[in-house]
Fold:
Amino acid sequence: MPRPEGERPGDAESRTASESKGARDAEAQSTSLTRIRQPTEIVDQRGKGVVLVVDGDQERGEVTADGLEAAGFRCDIADHGDAALEALEKNRYELVLADLELEGTSGTEFLCRVREINPHAGLIVLTSHESMADATAAAVEAGRLGVSEYLVRPPDFDDLVEKAMRTVEKSRLGELARDRAKSIPRGAPPGFERIIYASESMRRVVERCSQVASKDVTVLITGESGTGKDLLAHAIHQASPRRSRRFMPVNCAALSPQIIESELFGHEKGAFTGAISSRLGYFEHSNRGTIFLDEVGDIPLETQVKLLRVLENREIVRVGANDPVPVDVRVVAATHRNLEERVAEGKFREDLYYRLKVVPIHLPPLRERRDDIPLLVYHFVAKYADAYDKHFEEVEPAAVAALATHSWKGNVRELRHVIENIIVVAPGPLITVADLPESIRIARPQLEGGTAPSLDGLVGRTIQDVEREHIRNTLASVDGNRQEAAKMLGIAERTLYRRIKEYGL
Structure:
């Protein structure tokens, strides 16, 4: 065979040796890491989920991957720990299906490295019956790394597919919440960056507030305790031309009837026992700024008359004085009470009520804006992890789901306190369902309006009868769409098909 032009004697032998070495390297790589297909990060190519199968037995790993791909997943395979970690560095996987009995690899160390590289992927561990206890202890030792399932080898394939689908769904839920949380500052109007929201109801609230912020009108914010009325009032001030002036929050419910007029309007020296000097009230103190009258519904009737005068004439009269003092103050008021009912009861002046509600804003309770809960959870986790110098990387999707379905009678304030408590007590780096308060772990989701599902009609019926009826009703509500029904029921499509066949539906 003729030598290539320009090649010197001996080069052919060197070239042949180099090619052989390259072929051996490629062969070694192919036996340790197969089917790595690019780009696994493209969402529309993910199918039911992108899975990394880690199994020391390459043939067994191929069988598992083939089965998962037949069920609609996309799979890559690694036959040892180093190859798996290399794949995790390069690709975004939603599920890692790992055999922890890898040669030369500690199960605990491997799980730790997986979580360091991709804290968001779901984890399912395959292990022999004999090492199940060791694997469980390893995961606990590693800081509860969010292993979704432990399956004894060989697993029931239908069970494996169902658990893989559920784990990927949870992973995507957490991914969606994180993406939304990261996008909040970019979507919020100027001045409203601190308002955390994703729900349509809160979008309308923020939009309405941003429209009136620049107008010098009185705003009345209503809503349950803990919904964030004070935060919204401050955002209105920050988005107004008065932003460079003082924002004065006043909790009217905390002021006794004996001192509320002095606190709001000020007093002159000698106006009452103990008034040893003149004092400016909150209205004068916040002149040219914004005063926030929180819990305005608790102001006594006799003080309501003077507050009405301030709103109408823009002037106050100090306690013990005769001459009015002009003030230039924007008023934002808030209450958790139904002021119309208090007007009907004679406890609140009707003319003051209408003067306050020039622009009414209703802040919905947290249970009516559940889309906001995952964002709020991540926001408070980051806030309190930093405040208490704790290391938290992630919230388990199942924990996010449990928090999102809780009733939250105390609204955002209650959620904030729950997350703060978890950050202080939990070891981290992952917040799991086990870290949640017992009242949230054992609670069941309620219907809109806070009414729990009735058990009437269920007593005396078999579980099979109840399940059959529930599946039939769910299918009817989605016009027979099995994929949608399976999602609503929280089970895999394959499981739903079996139930339909079993129950003759």
Residues 257 and 302 are 9 Å apart (CA to CA). The longest helix spans residues 157-187. The two ends are 73 Å apart (CA to CA). The chain has a mean pLDDT of 79.
